[in-house]
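W.,

You were right to be curious about this one. When I first looked at the sequence I had no strong expectations either way, so I just let the prediction run and decided to look at it fresh. Below is the sequence, 354 residues in total, followed by the output.
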Amino acid sequence: MKTAILSLTLLLLAFCQTAEAQPADTLSIRQQNIVFIASATARGDLNNLKTSLARGLDNGMTVNEIKEVLIHAYAYCGFPRSLRALQTFMQVLDERKAQGITDTVGRDASPVGDSRDKYTRGAELLEKLSGAPKNAPKAGYAAFAPVIEQYLKEHLFCDIFERDLLTWQERELATVSILAALGEGVEPMLRSHSAICLRQGITEGQLRQMTEIVNGLKHADSFARGTLMTDNPNFTGKAWLQGYVAPQDGFGCTVANVTFAPDCRNSWHSHKGGQLLLCTSGKGYYQEKGKPIQLLLPGDVVKIAPDVIHWHGAAPDSVFTHIAIGTQLDKGGVTWLAPVTDEEYNSYKENNNQ
């Protein structure tokens, strides 16, 4: 069965000769946040949305910028999804406030000084956005139901797109993420908005990454993100921990979900009884002492033998999550060593020409 994700992939393949010929360009952290938030909103996936909203705040998006993504979404996936997303965001903010986290509200949208009628302004904005002449004869749905074309110009492309809390490029990236998440039945809109993304400076490689994020979110990590570890000397950067099996449970192991913000890693350490890492989302790094850094992706399993000195964490451009299983606790626990230096951490990029 065809899906919007497949349609988008085929569309992108048509834009370039081969995938290998494209540069390894990637979405910025902010752009990835927008993709995560928009696609989870479109699906009504409130569990992953909560994680995505918290991630966006932790990565520097303001409250008002995230609100704008959720408001923008209603035009493409409806009021019910948008309103539920806003209610979920309220819960996230309340929970963070209770944890002592103060999030930046940010500025409001700037006042619009253009006094021309909304239809004219919306038609002009759409022309700049898409390159299609604003005075072209009406065809298709615009000719069949002229009032919907009026609503699009006056409300969507005037009232919404004129708000400057998001750039046009960011709005189009959110739109394509929403349409891709909705699935089958919106292929024509997905195709046209993908073309607008390219016109607005999003590259084929970035659209491919967006496709991977949206597709991956269908099977995203469903384990709780847990609590932000504050003032932990064994982590460089922000990390969250949710424990599931503790030593006192009597199973001879520990099980926890660990989420690393981009650039976050733990210190060099070893485990007397060894450790298993089950990678569930994002991109991460793993390194054993004296060996090159390994790139970790969802589905990878790392088997760490007892007393092997190592570290693990997120790649610079991605949140990373894994299930950590401490094994053979009867042999002893973890031994923490020196922090991983920036030079050690950045050696992956240098050795792989990134």
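Here's what jumped out at me. The longest helix spans residues 79-98. And, maybe more interesting for your project: The chain has two domains: 4-109+163-217, 227-351.

Coffee later to discuss?

I.
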